[in-house]
């Protein structure tokens, strides 16, 4: 089976895979924590919150109750929806990769734990929205909080998708494990926020250290 068949459908994570969202996410988390009475001076210490579901991170990282975590998430979105969403950079080479995959007839799908509406704004901001057949994400009501929930939703839209013609691309163990629940292999990228050890331990089938290496695997 050639690559066009093996990777006919490609699910991309967003944060840490297509774009570097660190400044926007960590600034929004800092804002939310401050509203909750928790001061964090160095936002780089919040990089661990890029990737996992935010409700879970607020609860596990700061011992918040379900109610307080939802309140913190509301404060996070208060900042992110206006400012943080644009404190973001697309990784060099990603736009060209998506363009070439689209030209090659691949079905390109987004599977992000970020709310879909935020994801669409970001894709349009970086002029890559047109390459996606579907943008799948969480909802503002938190009905798809885990990566596996989002992957399940995306896969349900296409009856012809199967493990032998579909691959996930992501930078954290959540991408690897969430797609594995449905029999999908995952390409782990190292230019995001997961380490090689994290991705290999989670079971990534391929590792791409750079966007060029990712291109070589897919094309």
Strand content: 15-25%
Walk across the major sheet and give the strand order.
Answer: 5-4-1-6-7-8
Name the shape in a single word. Answer: globular
User: What is the CATH architecture assignment of the largest domain?
Assistant: 3-Layer(aba) Sandwich
CATH homologous superfamily of the largest domain, by name? Answer: HAD superfamily/HAD-like
Radius of gyration: 17 Å
- Report the total helices: 10
The SS-based structural class is alpha/beta
SSE series: HEEHHHEHEHEHEHEHEH
CATH class annotation of the largest domain = Alpha Beta
Unreliable parts: none
Here the CATH topology of the largest domain equals Rossmann fold
Assembly form of the protein: single chain
The helix fraction, in percent, is 40-55%
Count of domain modules: 2
The number of distinct β-strands equals 8
Q: Average pLDDT across residues? A: 97
Sheet with the most strands?
6 strands, parallel
Distance between the termini: 13 Å
Provide a short characterization of the protein structure.
With 219 residues, this protein is an alpha/beta fold. The chain has helices spanning 3-6, 22-35, 54-62, 66-80, 94-103, 116-125, 147-156, 173-180, 196-202, 211-218; strands spanning 9-12, 19-20, 89-90, 107-115, 134-138, 166-170, 185-189, 206-208. Strands 5-4-1-6-7-8 form a six-stranded parallel sheet, sandwiched between helices.
